[in-house]
Amino acid sequence: MAEILPESEALPRALDLLGAGAVVAIPTETVYGLSADATNGEAVARIYEAKGRPRFNPLIAHVADIAMAERLAHFSPLARKLAEAFWPGPLTLVLPHRGGSGIHPLVTAGLDTIALRCPRGFAPRAIAALDRPLAAPSANSSGRITATTAAAVAADLGDRIPLIVDGGATSVGLESTILKVEDEKLTLLRPGGVAAEDIERAAGMSVARGATGIQAPGMMVSHYAPRAAMRLNAGAVNPGEALLAFGPRRAEGAERAAAMLNLSEGGDLREAAANLFSHLLALDRVGAALIAAEPVPPEGLGEAINDRLARAAAPRGS
């Protein structure tokens, strides 16, 4: 089983393992990441092996700062403006890949773009000390519920990796927003921890939706899935179903639920985002065949929450 070390003590051990090409689970402000040296093909392959991840799904390369990111990608003035506004933080930028960057092709999955993010906390300290970017998808089996605690990582992947760095529960609780910047056009590839409205305000322009194909992580139709089936926008609860609630008002028949957890009693979308994956995981452990989810408003972070719920409820294998 994986060794679990608190963040305050883990850096030397993590650097030894990462430098040797091993995979280490690390905390970020969004979710826990399964990290490896992004310039080492064997190390990146170990991420795919640990997750059971399809090879066509690219990875995010995490950087210590904008200077490191500019060695990996071509930054337009708009891209740099967004990086300065939101980094470190939960925004991933998909940019034209710079030739000769040293990033292994497994990270980009054969695309001519690269997904870059500068996170907060332990991760940038490790990246700066290693002096190499880290590929770091979410620390969970591919397609399953994302881990927001070290304990959740250990329960899922503890027998596949050598070290988990315990930074406590993540503060954002959703993966990063992924934004493609191309010819001064912004396209939302995945909603996440930064609301599209905030990006539009910072950029002074609109963000397009409707991206198709696998251009970045988290774009598979079925993703973030519990073992139980899911039913969305539930106005009533059937006997035996578990209930993922939101806000102060309950779906009809909520008292019949096998178990119930509320994303936010007060209807706070930030609180709901932080609780989403841990609540899904807890309800999945109840053993109910189906989880009914009450409606979540679509504005702000609600866009990202609804995206994750839709992917969790999609037919498996799609």
TrEMBL record:
A GO CC annotation given for this chain: cytoplasm
Protein name (Swiss-Prot/TrEMBL): Threonylcarbamoyl-AMP synthase
Reaction catalysis annotation: L-threonine + hydrogencarbonate + ATP = L-threonylcarbamoyladenylate + diphosphate + H2O
Pfam family, one: Sua5_C
GO biological process, one term: regulation of translational fidelity
Class of the enzyme per the UniProt entry, highest EC level: transferase
InterPro entries named among the record's database cross-references: DHBP_synth_RibB-like_a/b_dom, Sua5-like_dom, Sua5/YwlC_C, Sua5_C, T(6)A37_SUA5, TC-AMP_synthase_SUA5
PANTHER family per record: SUA5, THREONYLCARBAMOYL-AMP SYNTHASE
Binding site for ATP: 53, 57, 113, 138, 190, 224
Origin species: Nitratireductor pacificus pht-3B
